[in-house]
Amino acid sequence: MQIDEIFEADKRLKKKKRTTPLLNSPFLDEIADKQIFIKAECLQHTGSFKFRGAYSAISSIPIEKRKKGVIAYSSGNHAQGVAFAAKIHKIPATIVMPQDAPEIKINNTKDLGAEVILYDRLSESREEIGQKISQEKFLSLIPPYDHNDVIAGQGTIGLEIARQAEQIGIRKADVLVCCGGGGLTSGIAVALSNFTPNFVTRPVEPEGFDDVVRSLEIGERQTNEKISGGLCDAIITPTPGKLTFPLMKKYCGGGIVVTDEQVMKAIALAFTRLRIVIEPGGAVALAAALFHSKKCDNETIIAVVSGGNIDPDIFKKALETI
Amino acid sequence: MQIDEIFEADKRLKKKKRTTPLLNSPFLDEIADKQIFIKAECLQHTGSFKFRGAYSAISSIPIEKRKKGVIAYSSGNHAQGVAFAAKIHKIPATIVMPQDAPEIKINNTKDLGAEVILYDRLSESREEIGQKISQEKFLSLIPPYDHNDVIAGQGTIGLEIARQAEQIGIRKADVLVCCGGGGLTSGIAVALSNFTPNFVTRPVEPEGFDDVVRSLEIGERQTNEKISGGLCDAIITPTPGKLTFPLMKKYCGGGIVVTDEQVMKAIALAFTRLRIVIEPGGAVALAAALFHSKKCDNETIIAVVSGGNIDPDIFKKALETI
């Protein structure tokens, strides 16, 4: 995985992705007692960063193969990203989703024109289902994170952060990233490492699902005890990716773990102070910036808010914390 | 009011304002049966467009006079805009606010360092209170809309819309604007009229508070029967401004009126489809784009979402409509 691959993905995504804004609020700075900026990737097409990786990967497939269609397995955001990227390319998409994914994500994926196949997280393997259908129907598999073109697509966020930080005069910062399999985190870390050694990329995970944070501490890939059931459904993965882990090991600083309570408060503060809607899995980095700012080296923190597809009932519960 | 004043305001606001994104969603296009873009000014500093006009006006005051401080009267968003713009200029701000303004807006204004004076909307005149204190303490009055520098500041949104529309290839559009006193609407209309005759700016108001829409129909300033009590508190004004009305008469197309029910649905759809938080007064233009698209001349509609400071309880009610 080279920086050039991120530059290439950035070219393919030009005029397709949204350049999402870097937001801030004096009220949030006060809570963290540091300067906080929020990269609002919940405002990306389909409501998460996943569109970038999906578009990057699909646009890399040779045309004749691409026409046959794509398949992906995902708890929701990657599903929508692939469905929308396929729609733009005018090719069919099949998405394998867990039965317990938020209803809104399943419905959105269908509404974006994809065929959805549901599976049971506890008894079935999404990888096996995905590969079986892929082979039967000659579909190109777009993995959620362990794929160079996907990582490169997510890395375009790092390029935007570098440009936007320069514009507002930020020279040193901790960049906190919501971390599942590590596609977003490793992509951003590779992109930023190219520009300046003064940006420290750190993965952030929810308590109980901190496989990446522990893996970085120990230096080898660790596994979570539970593989479902957390609040932060979008970033629950069993273990760091085979491709993403070496990249994170090389380019990232130590990770941060947050509680579900901190996640719910971060969602509420994003509502009152930033006027953006964020989902639990997309809020862990902001929660870390607000409530664990002392774990960061720099006085400026950039938190990547990775998604905003949240069930209304969970959002209402978050608002109760105000 | 000349276009040059908007260009001057744009220079003063450079690196101070946020260039807010133009968002869209295939799901919203489907509802409207037209192509809809949303200018998300709820993502501006302090959560509404009002920061632009406030900063534009304060930065125009001669330095010696400016140092004595500013005063403003406002139902909330102008209050926060003036308080934050004064904070950046490091000068004191006094804000006269109605007792029935949303608590979050009163608290935010105080937290931004302003002194807040409350008044009763039904028995007292905010203009009189504002002018009295202004004279006693030598404070510069920053009116909410009827002031050239304020209108010019809001007009910078029109410049951004023209640039952003060009970038994505939009040549013709109806631009729908949430309208209270008309500062935002007239500023945008003047700015857009300079670029192309193919953009039609239209004010949008809530049922029962449609003074501007009726005034444009009749050709003379009309007054609302009620002066408080509506859902869309941010844009409830008794009559169009003295300065803003002639501008709207010259540069605007006919207005559109929406119901409170449509406003609540627009808030919910902005939550699920755009992942932004919008307040009732800031949602009327989106409601018009979604549910009155046939009243627009063009196949593309740009709706300006003007603010996102909403009480959590009202937001929760809006989510019930999903």
Short description:
Chain A has 322 residues and is α/β, with parallel strands linked by helices. Helix content of chain A is 47%, strand content 15%. The N and C termini of chain A lie far apart (43 Å).
Structure commentary:
The structure is a homodimer of 322-residue chains. Chain A has helices at 3-13, 26-32, 50-60, 63-67, 77-89, 103-111, 126-137, 148-167, 183-195, 211-218, 244-251, 260-274, 280-291, 312-319; strands spanning 22-23, 35-40, 70-73, 93-98, 115-119, 140-141, 173-178, 199-206, 256-258, 300-305. By secondary structure, chain A is α/β, with parallel strands linked by helices. Chain A folds into two domains: 3-49 and 148-319, Rossmann fold, CATH 3.40.50; 50-141, Rossmann fold, CATH 3.40.50. In chain A, helix 3 (50-60) packs across helix 8. At the A-B interface, helix 6, helix 12 and helix 14 of A face helix 6, helix 12 and helix 14 of B.
Keywords:
homodimer; 322 residues; alpha/beta; Rossmann fold; 2 domains; 6-stranded mixed sheet; 10 strands
Supply the number of structural domains of chain A.
Answer: 2
End-to-end separation of chain A in angstroms reads: 43 Å
Q: What's the Cα radius of gyration of chain A?
A: 18 Å
Contiguous helical run count of chain A:
14
Task: Summarize the helices and strands and which ones pair or pack.
Two copies of one chain form a homodimer.
Chain A: H1 3-13, E1 22-23, H2 26-32, E2 35-40, H3 50-60, H4 63-67, E3 70-73, H5 77-89, E4 93-98, H6 103-111, E5 115-119, H7 126-137, E6 140-141, H8 148-167, E7 173-178, H9 183-195, E8 199-206, H10 211-218, H11 244-251, E9 256-258, H12 260-274, H13 280-291, E10 300-305, H14 312-319
Parallel strand pairs in A: 2-10, 3-4, 3-6, 4-5, 7-8, 7-10, 8-9
Antiparallel strand pairs in A: 1-2
Helix pairs in contact in A: 1-3, 1-8, 3-5, 3-8, 5-6, 8-9, 9-11, 12-13, 12-14
